[in-house]
Structure formats: C-alpha cells, structure tokens
Amino acid sequence: MSDLIALVDYGAGNLHSVENALRAAGASAVDVTADPDRVRAADRIVLPGVGAFAACMGALSAIDGMIDAMGDAVRNRAVPFLGICVGMQLLADAGLEHGRTEGLGWIGGDVRLMTTSDPALKIPHMGWNDVVQIRSHPLIVPGEAYYLHSYAFDVADPAELLAVTEHGRPVTAAVGRDNIVGVQFHPEKSQAYGLAFLSRFLAWRP
Q1: Which of 131, 181, 193, 199 could make an S-S bridge to 25, C-beta 3.0–4.6 Å?
Q2: Using CA atoms, how far apart are residues 19 and 155, in angstroms rounded to an integer?
Q3: For the stretch 117-131, what's the b/e string if a residue is b when 16 or more beta carbons lie within 10 angstroms of its beta carbon?
Q4: How far apart (Å, rounded) are the C-alpha atoms in residues 174 and 204?
Q5: CATH number of the domain that 174 lies in?
Q6: Nearest to 114 by CA among 152, 77, 76
Q7: What is the pLDDT of residues 160-195, one digit of tens each?
Q8: In the chain, alpha helices (H)
Q9: CA–CA separation, 79 and 81 (whole Å)
C-alpha cells in the first residue's frame, strides 16, 4: 500500500507493535509522528491508546495543534481514521473515570466502568473474545480478537454501533460512521484476525 499512514505518537500507545502490524498487513509507509502537520497531510490516521481515558486525552491535548490537525484531516478531507482501544474511546463525548473528561466528541456517548453480575467474570476484560457484527460495515466481520480494558464505550446512537462482544452483557467492540472507525480490541495482538482487519482498513475507501 502506498498511502501514507500517520500513527499518532502522543505517548499513550504501544506504537511499535501497531506499526509492525500495519506493515505486516501491507502498509509500506507508516509515519510514527507527533507532528500535527504530518498528521494533517496523511492519507490515513491511526490513533492507538493504552491506559486511562483522562491521561490519554490530556496527552493528546498537550500536543499543540494535534486535535485540530486530526479534525481537519478526518472531518474536512474525509481521511480514513482508525482508533484502537483507548484511541477508540477518545472518540466519545466524555470519559467518566475519576470524574468527567471531555473526549473528541466524534461519536456520541460516554465511556464508563464495566460492570458484571457474574463473579466468574473479571474486570478488566482481558483475553480472546468474540467480535459479533451488529451492522454491515466493510471493516467488520465476525471472529475472535484480543481485548484488554476495564471501561466500555456506551454509544448514544445505535446506528454507530458496529459490533459487540460479550462479558456478562454486550460490550461495545467497534463503532463508526462515515470515514471513522474505532475498535475496542487490539488488532496488533489479534493474530490473523487482526492483520486481516488492518488490511481491510488499508484498502478502505469510504
């Protein structure tokens, strides 16, 4: 793939693993960058994320011009965008961990602590679990993927919920609209399923 992929480096993602997975999926040009101008000019944008919502949003906001650059590329130029794990959660209106932290607001809803009434099910939700397709989307197919999270995206508009997984109740696995997709699972840790997903993202022309 000749498209330039901007992998946003804001100090909150497992960048090396995601970069390797993108290359294994067919990307020939992956730019790991904290430069808003390079993000604005990219053909595709990937926002990873590991950790707490507030810390990740704070780190992203601390890079002068980065949120504006992402917004310009994604909303004005319709650049395909992928958020992974907390990178997906940051698409929400807000995260409700230790108070309310405003998110990007690109997909309506809030990120809340997961709960389960089954004592056999632990939080965090960790390991392999299903991806159950809710609505048709070029990137989402049924399968098994790897998850590691304690908070879940409560999506406001059912039309923007693409897939769920089960952990005592349905939990958001993928969201999206237009040229924006976010996944709770880690494609870079999901072996063949994850590489196939990333390959579809690289070929996606929304």
Answers
A1: 199
A2: 28
A3: eeeeeeeebeeebbb
A4: 16
A5: 3.40.50.880
A6: 152
A7: 999 999 888 899 999 999 999 999 999 999 999 999
A8: 15-24, 36-41, 53-61, 66-71, 86-89, 191-203
A9: 6
Tokens of 162: 């693409």
Show Cβ contacts of residue 9 under 8 Å, excluding neighbours closer than 6 positions: 15, 32, 33, 34
Residue 89 sits in which domain range? 4-203
State the catalytic residues: 85, 186, 188
Query: Which H or E element spans position 163?
Result: strand 161-166
Q: Return phi, psi of residue 193, to 5°.
A: -60, -45
- pLDDT tens-digit map of 81-127: 999 999 999 999 999 988 899 999 999 999 999 887 777 788 888 88
> What is the CA angle 183-187-192, rounded to 5?
135
Instruction: Say which DSSP state 75 is in.
Output: I
Domain count, the chain: 1
**Can you read off the two tokens belonging to residue 25?**
């999926």
